[in-house]
């Protein structure tokens, strides 16, 4: 059985970030930047009030990681373990074999490579910590910053899905899926 994030050793450190599991009180800390229009442009959940944001945040703590720089949260992310698609008789072997990553960066921390550093750490947690065999991440095709991060951490574009995502602007946008296999990750690390 695949371990959960809570079973890993925390905190995890990168060159400039300290990663730890999300906590209920983090909702208030990220609210000032999380609700900004340039952040909400690409996030999947729009909370109109701090209370709604806190409820949403609390509902996803089992999969949530935060990245701190000098004691301040500058990134939030999720590592969600999933079952791989399989034939019915192989479902037990497919259980917990892949993970989906997602991340959001404080606009004040953008342009410094911290998003890439944070996403790379989430990828490492999924493969080395949780032992999944495949990692995926999705984005709106117009979200160039997320696409660049996925490419920089070694993920490949596996699909562009024409007008498959309804954006809160009311427009149907193209979606993209990026992925990386654990064996490819390990081969690149030497």
From TrEMBL:
Gene3D superfamilies according to UniProt: 3.40.630.30
Organism superkingdom: Bacteria
Keywords tagged on the record: Transferase
GO molecular function terms listed in the Swiss-Prot or TrEMBL record: acyltransferase activity, transferring groups other than amino-acyl groups
Keyword Ligase: no
Pfam family, one: Acetyltransf_3
Domain N-acetyltransferase: 17-179
Keyword Signal belongs to the record: no
Protein name per UniProt: GNAT family N-acetyltransferase
Species whose genome carries this gene: Brachybacterium alimentarium
């Amino acid at each position: 059985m695949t371990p959960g994030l809570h079973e890993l050793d925390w905190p995890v450190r990168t060159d400039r970030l300290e990663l730890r599991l999300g906590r209920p009180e983090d909702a208030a800390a990220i609210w000032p930047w999380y609700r900004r229009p340039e952040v909400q442009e690409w996030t999947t959940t729009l909370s109109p009030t701090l209370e709604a944001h806190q409820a949403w945040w609390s509902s996803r703590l089992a999969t949530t990681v935060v990245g701190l720089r000098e004691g301040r949260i500058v990134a939030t992310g999720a590592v969600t373990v999933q079952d791989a698609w399989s034939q019915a008789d192989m479902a037990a072997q497919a259980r917990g074999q892949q993970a989906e990553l997602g991340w959001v960066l404080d606009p004040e921390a953008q342009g410094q490579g911290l998003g890439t550093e944070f996403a790379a750490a989430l990828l490492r947690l999924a493969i080395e910590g949780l032992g999944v065999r495949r990692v995926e991440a999705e984005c709106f095709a117009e979200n160039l910053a997320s696409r660049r991060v996925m490419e920089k951490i070694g993920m490949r574009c596996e699909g562009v899905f024409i007008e498959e995502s309804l954006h809160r602007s009311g427009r149907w946008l193209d979606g993209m899926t990026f992925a990386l296999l654990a064996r490819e990750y390990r081969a690149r690390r030497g």
